[in-house]
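Cross-check.
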Amino acid sequence: MLSYSWNLHPLLATVPAQVATLAMIRQEPYPIKAAYLQGTNPMLSYPGSGSVREALERLDFLAVADIFMTPTAALADLVLPSATHLEFDDIGNYGLPKSFILARPKVVDPPGEAWPDLRILNELARSLGLGELFWKEDKELLEQVLAPAGLTYREFKESLVLWGTPAYRTYLERGFDTPSGKVELRCDQLAQRGLDPLPGSPEPQGQQWAPSPQFPFLLTSAKDPVYFHSAYRQIPSLRKISPEPWVEISPEAASLLGVAQGDWVRVCTPRGRIRQRVRLVEGLDPRVACGAYGWWFPERGHQDLFGWEESNLNFLTSPDPPFDPLLASVNLRGIPCFLEKA
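Predicted model, tokenized:
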């Protein structure tokens, strides 16, 4: 219904984050009263972090399941402790192109009241009267997945791996997944929706995409290889390697700004401003600033939402329309910005 209200592609199987948050704020096309978030930190990872907080605070009830406290969990009415991947039986599927799956047996029991995510979902469904669509116990899913191979999970754990038969160049037998079965450089499905059927990169209307005297840099972003998205900032060994967020600029840009390696600067867009440290990068275009994504400060404590505002790159992005007309994606890079010494 949410995707339909924005005229998104009917094959889009999920609701884009910014569509969901706008629906929570506007209460359109219908009110959203509650949300259950599992293993996600939208206060850091969704575009337009200020709007995300507003959306979550409009809910009557917010529950979060995670293995650590996060800014999003700190905002919740209820926090459920999740088991880590080492604390429950599972099947490792590393993508359809791979011709094998791996057994991932439990190493230790989860501590305290922590449950695997699947168990939480299964019990929630049963409590809502949807038990016939799920399982009596969540472990039955593993047996269901392995049944076509004639294996039980106990047997699978003994072999640890299940090999399939690799199939190459299957398009020679059944073609490609297009209406014609061939490679299509022109997409008539797009033309039927009034969109350009040929590849291109049009700039969305109603947004500024070129640098200006007020915003002379173009902001892009990168994930710190030490971390995974917004996770693991609370692990001391990782913080020793990468203790603070960096914004990368060229030495030429730093000279014009009067800043040096390690200085704190404010990074500002029409949407907001944050603080990050300067890292000088030779060869970087002097018109480009590359900010660090996913930063918060667990040491600040939950009452401050772990300092989620200070260096959070998504305070600089916008969740507002116009969206991509097909998938409702928003622009997260190439955003005009300016920098100043903090």
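The chain has two domains: 33-163, 217-341. The mean pLDDT is 91. Passed to J.P. for a second look.
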